[in-house]
């Protein structure tokens, strides 16, 4: 198959505003959307701002919205679109734009810092940790995350609701809480930290209504909703309605009041 000319609309602008700019650009066999953006930059718009690093789906920096869908530009083949189709490339909508296709994803780093780290178990040195293979496999899936923040961008809780950002950590970081809560060696509870309670009270787990949109856009194919968010919700609810836990917390509250 030979090359052809594609029609692109690329959002250009900054925090003060902007709009879509039209480009007619050459496409060759085997190219991805990031190649075309680079060609526009090289031949027509040298000041076009775009963030990327690996061009291999591993660094998570080339996230953008292509025809309204959050995607990695380097992993989106041109061949999935019709030759006549106009491709619209816009910056991630849930985060403030810096310039052109580059957004400020600082929200995600702030949320990452709010999740307390793994608490090492007392009396077990590094290298002495032992756990079941199925527990290893479970966290291995979550560890595939490349922090592209496509799930954070797509989640409707914050996508159109700036006001929810303070109370909601988003799927990527609720997944991190779930990973730590399922970790058999995490000694958070011995240190007085109940990750199920903080998931609800501090990371906004209750805002998630398990629509699975985050899972649908994850380029690593992580089953964020089914394997992290729903189990975390179940564990949090179990705790709330477990009569022994309820009685225990009442007694504790009474004895601390006395
Ligand atoms: S499943 Fe929950 S976290 Fe994921 S997109 Fe839906 S509301 Fe957001
Ligand atoms: S969970 Fe998936 S979509 Fe979300 S940041 Fe990680 S790799 Fe990206
Ligand atoms: S450039 Fe690294 S994920 Fe696309």
Automatic annotation (TrEMBL):
One GO cellular component term: plasma membrane
Pfam families membership: Fer2_3 (PF13085), Fer4_8 (PF13183)
Pathway: Carbohydrate metabolism; tricarboxylic acid cycle
Gene Ontology BP annotations: respiratory electron transport chain; tricarboxylic acid cycle
Cofactor list: [2Fe-2S] cluster; [3Fe-4S] cluster; [4Fe-4S] cluster
Top-level enzyme category: oxidoreductase
Domain of life, per lineage: Bacteria
Keywords, comma-separated and alphabetical: 2Fe-2S, 4Fe-4S, Iron, Iron-sulfur, Metal-binding, Oxidoreductase
Family named by the database record: Belongs to the succinate dehydrogenase/fumarate reductase iron-sulfur protein family.
Name under which the protein is recorded: Succinate dehydrogenase / fumarate reductase iron-sulfur subunit
């Amino acid at each position: 198959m030979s090359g052809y000319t594609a029609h692109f609309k690329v959002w250009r602008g900054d925090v003060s505003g902007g709009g879509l700019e039209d480009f007619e650009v050459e496409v060759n066999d085997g190219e991805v959307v990031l190649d075309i953006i680079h060609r526009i930059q090289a031949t027509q718009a040298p000041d076009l701002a775009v963030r990327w690093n690996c061009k291999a789906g591993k660094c998570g920096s080339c996230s953008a919205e292509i025809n309204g869908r959050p995607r990695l530009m380097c992993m989106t083949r041109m061949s999935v679109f019709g030759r006549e189709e106009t491709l619209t490339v816009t910056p991630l909508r849930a985060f403030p734009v810096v310039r052109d296709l580059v957004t400020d994803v600082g929200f995600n780093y702030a949320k990452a810092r709010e999740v307390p780290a793994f608490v090492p178990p007392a009396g077990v040195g590094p290298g002495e940790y032992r756990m079941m293979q199925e527990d290893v496999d479970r966290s291995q899936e979550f560890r595939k995350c490349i922090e592209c923040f496509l799930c954070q961008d797509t989640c409707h809780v914050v996508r159109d609701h700036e006001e929810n950002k303070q109370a909601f950590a988003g799927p990527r970081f609720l997944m991190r809480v779930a990973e730590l809560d399922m970790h058999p060696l995490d000694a958070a509870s011995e240190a007085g930290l109940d990750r199920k309670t903080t998931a609800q009270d501090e990371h906004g787990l209750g805002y998630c209504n398990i629509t699975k949109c985050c899972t649908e856009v994850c380029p690593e194919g992580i089953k964020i909703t089914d394997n992290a968010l729903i189990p975390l919700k179940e564990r949090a609810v179990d705790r709330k309605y477990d009569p022994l836990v309820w009685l225990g917390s009442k007694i504790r509250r009474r004895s601390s009041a006395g």
